[in-house]
Specification:
Helices cover 4% and strands 47% of the residues. It has two helices and 27 strands. The radius of gyration is 23 Å and the shape is elongated. It starts with 9 loop residues before the first helix and ends with a strand.
Length: 290
C-alpha cells in the first residue's frame, strides 16, 4: 500500500531506510504528514466482503496487500504492518459498559459511524437505544463522545447458543455437538477433536463458527436457577434478582427427561419453573427445571 507524502513530511521520512519500523501519521485524506518511532499506531478499519478498508476521518480507504491469518471477518479491526507486503489485523477491545442511548443530547458524536455484522448502518435505523447485549465495541473521542460503534461482530449466521453433547468417536477423539433445538441451524454445529476446550455434556455454550464451520469462539453461558413463571414479563423479558433480561421470540426450551425441545409457548404450558441461560444480558436458552 502506498500513501502520498506531504512536502512537510519529507525530512522525517528521510531518517528511515527500507525495512525500518515506524508509525505513519496520516491526514484525514490519507496523506503522510510524518513518521515516528515514538508514537504508538492506532489505525483501525473494517474487514468485510469488500476487503480491508482503513478509517480516515469520515472516509474509508481501501487497502491492498496480503492480509495475515486472522479470525476477524466482518468486524472492526486494528491495523498494522510488521512484514513487507503483509497487513496484520486484530480484534478491537470492548469499551462497552452498558446500554447506549442515541436520543438527542446523548454522548454520541455528530459524525459517529455504526457497523453491524461488518456492514455500515444508519443511526436513524437504530432507534433511541442500543441494548448492552447488542453492542460489542465503542470508541470514544477526546470529548468522551462515542464516534465508532459496533453492534454485532462476525457473520450473522455464525452465532449459536445451545446444549453440549460430548462423545468419543471410533478413533478415541473427543467430539462435541452443540444442540440449539432449532431445525434451521446447520448440522455443522458438530466439530472434530475438541480436546483444547473443556466442554461438558449438558452445559450450555455460546459458539461462533468460522468460514470452515469450526468453532472460532466458545464461551459458557451464565445460568439462572429455578426461575418461576411469575418472574416473566409477558414473553419478552424476565426479572431475576435485581436484573431484567430480554428473551428473543425464537427461544427454545430443553426438556431433560425426554431430550426434546419446546418453543416458548409450549414450555410455559408445560412447566412453571425453569433454568435460564444468559449471554450479554439476554436469555438465549431455557431448560425445564426437573
Amino acid at each position: 500500500q502506498s500513501f502520498p507524502l506531504l512536502d512537510g513530511a519529507v525530512s522525517s521520512v528521510a531518517q528511515y531506510k527500507p525495512g525500518d519500523s515506524c508509525t505513519m501519521l496520516l491526514t484525514t485524506d490519507g496523506q503522510v504528514a510524518g513518521v515516528s518511532k515514538d508514537v504508538k499506531g492506532n489505525a483501525m478499519g473494517i474487514y468485510n466482503e469488500s476487503g480491508l478498508s482503513l478509517f480516515l476521518g469520515d472516509e474509508t480507504l481501501p487497502l491492498s496487500g496480503t492480509i495475515g491469518a486472522n479470525s476477524c471477518y466482518k468486524q472492526i479491526v486494528s491495523i498494522s504492518q510488521y512484514k513487507m507486503g503483509e497487513i496484520s489485523i486484530g480484534p478491537v477491545g470492548s469499551g462497552v459498559s452498558g446500554d447506549l442511548e442515541l436520543k438527542a443530547g446523548s454522548a454520541i458524536a455528530e459524525n459517529a459511524r455504526f457497523f453491524d455484522y461488518g456492514q455500515p448502518v444508519s443511526r436513524d435505523s437504530l432507534g433511541a437505544l442500543i441494548k448492552y447485549a447488542d453492542l460489542s465495541y465503542i470508541r470514544r473521542n477526546w470529548a468522551g463522545d462515542a464516534d465508532l460503534i459496533q453492534l454485532h461482530a462476525g457473520d450473522k449466521q455464525g452465532h449459536y447458543y445451545g446444549r453440549a453433547r460430548v462423545f468419543t468417536d471410533d478413533a478415541g477423539d473427543k467430539n462435541v455437538i452443540i444442540d440449539t433445538g432449532k431445525a434451521a441451524d446447520p448440522s455443522a454445529l458438530k466439530t472434530g477433536v475438541v480436546s483444547s476446550y473443556p466442554f461438558r455434556s449438558g452445559s450450555y455454550y455460546y459458539v461462533r463458527l468460522n468460514s470452515q464451520n469450526s468453532f472460532a469462539f466458545i464461551d459458557e453461558m451464565g445460568k439462572l436457577v429455578n426461575v418461576k413463571e411469575s418472574a416473566f414479563i409477558g414473553k419478552s423479558a424476565v426479572t431475576f434478582g435485581a436484573n431484567t433480561y430480554d428473551i428473543p421470540a425464537d427461544i427454545m426450551c430443553y426438556v431433560p427427561s425426554s431430550g426434546t425441545w419446546l418453543d416458548l409457548d409450549a414450555a410455559l404450558a408445560y412447566s412453571d419453573t425453569f433454568n435460564l441461560y444468559s449471554y450479554n444480558g439476554t436469555i438465549q436458552v431455557m431448560e425445564i427445571a426437573e
